[in-house]
C-alpha cells in the first residue's frame, strides 16, 4: 500500500513537472524525487513508526532535496527544477480545503456553531501552515548543506601573499 501511494506521488510530481514546462530529460528525475519523498512520508506515517504529519512531511522534504541534488548533476538541470515539483504532492490538500471551506462557513454561522467552525478552521489552517513550513525546511536543509563544497569550488582562489 505504501509503495502504491509513493508511486502516485511520483506520478503527481511528474505531472507538476509537465505543468511547469520542465525539460523532458528531467521528468524521470522528478518522478524519482516524488516517489522517494512519498515513500519516506508514508513510511513515517505508518502506525509502527507513529510520526505525525509534520515530521513525516519534513523527512519527505529532506529526501526530495537529497534526490534532487544527486540527480540534477546527472541530468544537467538545476536542482531546484527537480526539487520543487517533487515536494508538491506532500502538501496536505484535504486540511487546506477544510480550512478554506471553514472560512466561507464563518460568514453564515452564529452562536455555538460559530465557535466550533472557527476552532476547526484554525486547526486545519495552522496544520497546513506547519506542514508547508516543514516541507520548506526539509527541502532547504540538504540543498544548503550538500551544496557547500560545490559553492566553495566556484569561489575564486586567493592569490598567494608575496
Note the main attributes of this structure.
162 residues; mainly alpha; 7 helices
- How many helices in DSSP terms? 7
| Proportion of residues in β-strands | under 5%
Average the pLDDT over all residues and give the rounded result: 88
Task: Indicate how many domains the architecture comprises.
Answer: 1
Q: Major beta sheet, specifics?
A: none
- Low-pLDDT runs of 5+ residues are none
Q: Tally of extended strands?
A: 0
Q: What gyration radius follows from the Cα positions, in whole Å?
A: 20 Å
The gross shape turns out to be elongated
Q: How would you describe this structure to a colleague?
A:
The protein is mostly helical and 162 residues long. The protein has one domain (2-154). It is 76% helix and 0% strand. The protein is built from seven helices and no strands. The protein has helices at 2-19, 27-45, 53-75, 79-87, 93-105, 112-145, 148-154. It is elongated and about 80 Å long. The model has no long low-confidence stretch (mean pLDDT 88).
Quick recap of the structure?
By secondary structure, the chain is mainly alpha-helical.
Topology:
Blueprint: H1 2-19, H2 27-45, H3 53-75, H4 79-87, H5 93-105, H6 112-145, H7 148-154
Helix pairs in contact: 1-2, 1-4, 2-3, 2-4, 3-4, 3-6, 5-6
